[in-house]
Amino acid sequence: MTESRRAWPLATALVAALAALPLVLLWPALRHLVESRMLLHMLLEFPALFAAGWAAHGLLAWRRGLRVSARLALLDWGGLSGASVASCVAVFWMIPLALDASLLLAPVALAKYASWWLAGLLWAGSWRRMQPEVLLFFVGNLCWMSATAGMLYMDAAQRLCANYLLGEQRSTGIGLVLLALLLGALALRRVMRHGTV
């Protein structure tokens, strides 16, 4: 029992550090390191910001108890609101022009950090409230869009993002297709574990 009591503050500290991850990107050297490569920008930074929002949801639920979760559930019937916001955020930041703008304009970069963080915060509560069919619809749609964007990045004969080279664009495309396959497999696993469609 004492070991679990000792582990609890450590786990909470790790979750709090993850929730505060977007603040680390305010350090210019680290931000440049991550965002100078398209693969790291889209497949490391975006999921990390999403995970930070997810961790923040866990902290809110732990600190404020069931009251916050109940209020969020009223605004997010069946998980539809959170899933819709997360889908819109993911779609918007797959657009090459949006990616370029986030590198050139500070307000757009801040909007990127905030939107991915908010998407993670909302999705963390939504996915548990979703019916299996709804979960498969949203995740399947996200997988289809990621795979399509990935194939577009791989097959394009010219650069779609002004700030990234053609080779980086192709490797990011491969990464997006692999991410789509992984997300699809995770969604199917959850549906098979908790109920069939």
Global structural class: mainly alpha
Oligomer: single chain
**Fraction of helical residues:** over 70%
Beta-strand content: under 5%
- Low-confidence segments, ≥5 residues, pLDDT <50? none
Straight-line N-to-C gap: 40 Å
Q: What order do the SSEs take from the amino end to the carboxyl end, as H and E? A: HHHHHHHHHH
Supply the number of helical segments: 10
Output mean pLDDT.
85
Count all strands and give the number.
Answer: 0
Q: Specify the overall morphology.
A: globular
Sheet of most strands: none
How would you summarize the topology of this molecule?
Blueprint: H1 2-19, H2 21-24, H3 28-35, H4 38-64, H5 66-75, H6 80-92, H7 96-104, H8 106-129, H9 132-155, H10 166-194
Helix pairs in contact: 1-4, 4-5, 4-8, 4-10, 6-8, 6-9, 7-8, 9-10
